[in-house]
Specification:
By secondary structure, this protein is mainly β. It has 4 domains: 138 residues, Sandwich (Jelly Rolls), CATH 2.60.120; 114 residues, Glucose Permease (Domain IIA) (Distorted Sandwich); 59 residues, SH3 Domains (SH3 type barrels), CATH 2.30.30.40; 69 residues, SH3 Domains (SH3 type barrels, Roll), CATH 2.30.30.40. Strands 10, 13, 14, 15, 16, 17, 18, 19, 20 and 21 form a 10-stranded antiparallel beta sheet that branches. Strands 2, 4, 7, 9, 22, 25, 26, 27 and 28 form a 9-stranded antiparallel beta sheet that branches. Strand 20 and strand 21 form a beta hairpin. The longest helix is centred in the N-terminal third of the chain and has 19 residues. The chain binds zinc ion. The site of zinc ion has 5 residues, from loops.
């Protein structure tokens, strides 16, 4: 009977999801359609789907300032990062202009089968932050998309947040010197926790509320304590002394003992061995759950200098990289004077898209504002509002006309012409008018 009831309840909640469970992102699509913007809604939604298939790999913490251009703001961006089981991530979206900018944040998990992306969480529209806890170890996709025709500046910060307080008083993540999974006993076993080094006698505090399951002295762990809370067991070992007793109820932050080097740590410097065990899964990596080292980003991001939307390569060659690091994989190599589109700025890097449809990062020191050079048209040209086929045509230029050229972006040349207007000159060819650009961008 109980099982039957459970089936009914699950059935109801799934039905509920379908009927009332639109995410803010899905609701935005419906609103656009209701306003008669079917095509725009479709474009916005297909960009969202496309982004999921080609996420940008990042390491946490990640921060960027994004410039929203109304012509291109439909573009969704997806980031992918590996998370440990139970790791908490805060995705913060702060519009830094006065205008209201709706920004949609959704977290997905990649899975086999149809549909291949499962949405796990979404930011509420009245909030600037989404807190997400990974249900298992794996790759998670954070998709960020501004509302249709949004304009302004948005700071995006994706950072790990500790789930628990740090287990050694007045000590931080930099005191962890030996990590989960490290070889032990010449590779016969693996380290099932982390070692936190501190002076002998430093208070060890319980990272959570719970109950003392065991407080004992054993050959390996020395003076050690097991604390249980729900399906979690916390193991504190090599203590100098123990301040609790079996069966005692513990609150978060309570001192339960002090750092020492008892048990098989007697020949090493005093440290706390801290282990975390979750139900039937056994030991899991506690480091991401106590790592308190990511907190400075938010203050510094607003000081990042902005960039024009189009920048030119200053170096003879410039590599577009998969991540904001000189060691990151090369996505594409650009030549001097080629233009790239800036999608977001970071302190020393720009996140860009290239004419060939690649996305990646370039070092700021190797780019410059496009340099105008005189250009006399050898044949008639069309001038478009954006370097893409679907963009509105601004004007036509005849052969022999003189304009200022700022650089090339694929088959498009950024020009400034009479009255300081900017546009993209392109030859009207049968190839371009077949509308193949969209497809080329998506391969
Ligand atoms: Zn250890």
């Amino acid at each position: 009977m109980r099982k039957f009831l459970l089936v009914i309840l699950i059935g109801l909640s799934i039905a509920g999801c379908q009927r009332w469970g639109d995410s803010p992102h899905q609701a935005h699509v419906k609103n656009l359609v209701a306003e008669g913007l079917q095509e725009e809604a479709q474009r916005w939604e297909s960009s969202a789907r496309y982004a999921l298939s080609f996420p940008i790999g990042i390491q946490l913490p990640y921060a960027e300032r994004r410039i929203l251009n109304p012509e291109q703001s439909y573009r969704a961006t997806a980031f992918v990062a590996s998370l440990a089981m139970d790791q908490r991530v805060a995705i913060t979206v702060e519009p830094s202009s006065n205008s209201r900018v709706p920004v949609f944040v959704d977290v997905f998990e990649r899975q086999s089968g149809e549909p291949s992306f499962k949405r796990l969480a979404s930011k509420k529209q009245d909030q600037h932050q989404l807190l997400f806890e990974a249900p298992r170890q794996g790759q998670y996709i954070f998709r960020i998309q501004a509302g249709y025709r949004a304009r302004g500046l948005v700071n995006i910060i994706i950072a790990s947040q500790p789930k628990y307080i740090f287990p050694v008083l007045n000590t931080h993540a930099d005191a962890v010197k030996s990590f989960f999974g490290a070889a032990r006993d010449g590779g016969k076993r693996q380290h099932k926790g982390v070692d936190i080094f501190a002076e002998q006698g430093t208070p060890v505090v319980s990272v959570s509320a719970g109950r003392v399951h065991k407080a004992a002295t054993t050959p390996r762990g020395g003076n050690n304590i097991w604390i249980r809370q729900g399906e979690y067991s916390f193991y504190y070992a090599h203590l100098h002394d123990i301040h609790v007793q079996q069966g005692q109820t513990i609150s978060t932050g309570q001192t339960i003992g002090t750092v020492g080097n008892s048990g098989n740590a007697r020949t090493t410097r005093p440290h706390l061995h801290f282990g975390l065990y979750k139900g039937v899964r056994g030991a899991i990596d506690p480091y991401p759950l106590i790592d308190d080292s990511h907190s400075l980003l938010e203050q510094t991001i607003t000081e990042i200098e902005l960039s024009p939307r189009w920048v030119a390569v200053k170096a003879r060659e410039l590599n577009v990289r998969a991540g904001p690091k000189l060691k990151a994989d090369i996505v594409q190599t650009l030549r001097r004077h080629q233009l790239v589109q800036v999608e977001a700025v970071m302190a020393d890097w720009l996140r860009v898209s290239t004419a060939e449809g690649f996305h990646g990062f370039i070092a700021r020191e190797f780019i410059q504002q496009p340099n105008p050079t005189r250009w006399q048209l050898d044949q008639p040209y069309l001038v478009m509002a954006e370097p893409e086929m679907q963009a509105p045509v601004l004007s036509r230029l005849d052969a022999g006309e003189k304009v200022l050229s700022l650089g090339l972006f694929g088959p498009y040349r950024l020009i400034t012409f009479a009255g300081g207007l900017q546009g993209w000159a392109t030859v009207e060819t049968p190839l371009l008018s077949t509308g193949d650009k969209q497809n080329r961008n998506e391969t």
